[in-house]
Sequence to fold (100 residues):
Amino acid sequence: MFLKKVEGVRTIALPDGRVLSHSDLPPENIKRWVASRKEVVVLAVRHGLLSRKSALEKYDLSDEEFACWENALNDHGSKGLKVTLIQNYRQPRGDSERNA
Fold:
């Protein structure tokens, strides 16, 4: 077995006991973002496996998109990352915002 040389840490232990490594990260050319892949990227950044800057570059994400993922995971857990359920977790907008 050969290990690819990576800078920084190889693995991290998550608070729930799972171990996350670079091999658990989604591929760079990912087109379909499901909740589990979003969660892995956010956890990798949060716990130091991947820097935020490198995650944004590697996955071609905007800072706002990544921040939305972080907020959804913080506020609602992995279910908050599901696009099909996003309307259940978003704050209702005020009338002034709808008319703008």
About this structure: The helical segments are 35-46, 52-58, 63-76, 86-89, 95-99.
